[in-house]
What does this fold into?
Amino acid sequence: MSLEFTSSEMMSVTAARALTSEMTCFVGIGLPSEAANLARLTHAPDITLIYESGTLQTRPDVLPLSIGDGELCESALTTVSVPEMFRYWLQGGHVSVGFLGTAQIDRYANLNTTLIGDYRAPKVRLPGGGGAPEIATNAKEVFVTLKHSKRTFVKDVDFLTTVGFGRDGKARDNVPNIGRGPTIVITDLCILKPDPETKELVVHLLHPNVTREDVINATGWEIRFADELGTTPAPTAEELEILRSLKARTDAHHAGQQ
Amino acid sequence: MSLEFTSSEMMSVTAARALTSEMTCFVGIGLPSEAANLARLTHAPDITLIYESGTLQTRPDVLPLSIGDGELCESALTTVSVPEMFRYWLQGGHVSVGFLGTAQIDRYANLNTTLIGDYRAPKVRLPGGGGAPEIATNAKEVFVTLKHSKRTFVKDVDFLTTVGFGRDGKARDNVPNIGRGPTIVITDLCILKPDPETKELVVHLLHPNVTREDVINATGWEIRFADELGTTPAPTAEELEILRSLKARTDAHHAGQQ
Amino acid sequence: MAEFLSLREAVSRYINDGDTVAMEGFTHLIPFAAGHEVIRQKKRDLTLIRMTPDLVYDQMIGAGCAKKLIFSWGGNPGVGSLHRLRDALENGWPNSIEILEHSHAAMACAYDAGAAGLPLAVLRGYIGSDLPKVNDQIKFIDCPFTGERLAAVRSVRPDVAVIHAQRADRNGNVLIEGIVGIQKEVVLAAKRSIVTVEEIVDNLDAGVNACVLPSWAVTAIAEAPKGASPSYALGYYDRDNAFYKEWDGIARDREAFQAWLEANVFEKGAA
Amino acid sequence: MAEFLSLREAVSRYINDGDTVAMEGFTHLIPFAAGHEVIRQKKRDLTLIRMTPDLVYDQMIGAGCAKKLIFSWGGNPGVGSLHRLRDALENGWPNSIEILEHSHAAMACAYDAGAAGLPLAVLRGYIGSDLPKVNDQIKFIDCPFTGERLAAVRSVRPDVAVIHAQRADRNGNVLIEGIVGIQKEVVLAAKRSIVTVEEIVDNLDAGVNACVLPSWAVTAIAEAPKGASPSYALGYYDRDNAFYKEWDGIARDREAFQAWLEANVFEKGAA
It folds into this structure.
């Protein structure tokens, strides 16, 4: 059986598979939210999803457009204030996985969502840090998902909004009371993990029909590949069906809301 | 018309009169609570009462035995957590009057509710600080009410739990962002106020039928009297009736609760 | 006690040119009606504070109300950039604006500290981030008990807080329900506050632990039905997600934006 | 996820001799049933933490469970002293105990900081008080922004939190209503937690912003109907104020206390 799927679908399905029912996941909007809800609707029905708007253990039927859509509150176990969310639930150590998107990532998995260019004279101004800077250190580990390109995968981020392992890979060394940082990066081409020693991102699995050259051409530094480079399993028919119906439901809902 | 009343009733009625409808009053249990609710039931119907258990704007029908009786919550506008009460509402500057009782008070209106004797080998162990240390500095002003005796009115408190004006009368000088401290002390004998300069407590009004000697004999230091010493107005028939019915209602309620 | 005023009167009386104004509502209950009234009254040189300056601040910045923005995430959620904000930052149109940016956690803590009457908040934050290099309101302190290095941020104490809530009772007590965000904190942290509400009712009909702002903690209340639209008010109306998407097109173009502003803000009076 | 256990099993498994145990409930929802089970199981050398150590700790201290007490107000509210606490402090009976005392504000902030994963809390407190002289967990810091001197207290992070709540659903989510005190904070600040509940229900029937502890934030849940009596549980039963007054007589006398303990705690098993 050979299924048709897009690279975006491949990315969402793969990102979803990184999650399990036992996790408490602090979910960023966009790709992470899509992956987390796909996980919940497939193999991880009991995963606990938390959004920074204060919604604890939420189960939206459609993907929220914003971090605080009504869906999230109405389907949550309870909704707390934003300071409580960041202070008691995130900083208090109750989040096992922080799931983040980003505009730029560098070889040490540092994230830039602030700007391209110089801080005082930006070429492109991006939204800013949001929840990410503290999710990255207060969650026990961090998953990152983004599309792979030379613009997004850069040797050094223009601005270090959210720490992966710092400019030299050592930013977490000897810092007490913080999480392990990024443990997996999922793109539309491959799965990367930090080298256990140097913390530099290394490609571990290529998605079906993706070549080493595709990844090399889409990465802004000399990307390394693991010695035993594998292939990511393709999406199953069930995963694709549930993802597509979630997205169709979402589009219909948001378009109709007037 | 000459009414019969006890010195305790005189004290409660006088303490109640210090309060107005415009005040937001953080109420200690016991005498302050009795006075504050009497005020609410007589001349200050719109006074806002706050108890440290988190009950905002409460209107109990009977006096609570504890700071957190069900009455307080059920009749409150809303009930918040204890950290929120102390952080947002008291420290945040929303309390105009802190109304405190105490076991000991000294000439600079410092309060001791910790112990009599030496800290490591107490003669009498008292309950401790409770809310008072921060009520005394975070409320815009403080009213104190207690029974007058040589045991309670001492030259220097054994332990300074809650600051009035400090051991030398100068503890509030140049301390930013705190309230004025005690502005009135109401006992069963008289009304005292701190001297505007030295902060030493001075008797301003004697209750009906109380003499200077009564106060001198019940005070552990050489008590001063104001140049124009007045007499506190006696309780009115209405005040006494409302106070007595409040106390009767309270006794019946608490005895019957099993 | 809170005063009941028209929105026009409340904005006119309590927001002055040059004020520091925090209009909050974390994606829910965003005070759009109040923002539009600020634009209509041509308030200028405001320092605008908001964790998530989305469309309402994009509109106010595009209309020339702001000289400075303090924020932690500035985008059109799920859609993209705030083009008016970017035009101001990248091209100085209609005027250049200063920015001071935080993370969400730090800003939430800064509001919390403001509500708690403190000059600073302490958090485990900003580790390894470049943000402390560009924001002088972030410092680091050592815990006197453990020696751990922690971030400290100056608390937020705005001149005016503006929020939208579901309802107020006739005494001026305000109920906020659902995603309560940072609304209680900003009102308690500010010197003055304006609360717009969907309706004024006899009885709040609130649970024992509901998020209620007592009348004595609020300066002014203005009735503004649908006052959060295109954001939403739980129990009243849904988020107009289609408009959020549509805004992207309007805001990309200065003329389209100005035409929108004329037709939808200036030509409509306050309720 | 929270485990459902009998109270006996929960106390046996999660409270060890020598542990730091915080049993909270600010006059409301005091976990008396759990305290009695601790007495029956003859737990020893506990460091007991509680803002208002009232009758439940008086009983546990009189029964010899405690070696140290951390508190901010220790009395029988509206009645008078805790005679068992005083006997331990003044006469070392049945054993001497150490104390560490705070103000309510500081302790509430210390729990809040514990829940927030911080090593310290900062407050405007203890100004002019002698308490910092006898409590080495109080220090002072200077605000790096304003220079204001503020109190710092070490956060509270107990080994075990014990609270009583109205109800849990079958997934182990817990609802607390009414005077919620410090209960959420103590559970989040502790390494382990035991929650006793009036009943276990299919549906919590809670408002959108209710005080709910998710199952994954709780270690063990034990059903204990009337588990807060003589304290109360809003919506279930009232405070037994008459017993609080009666306790004064029982606790004044060592033999009367021991007879009460025998008849009311040891001879009654856990539910």
Q: What stands out?
A: Chain D has a mean pLDDT of 97.
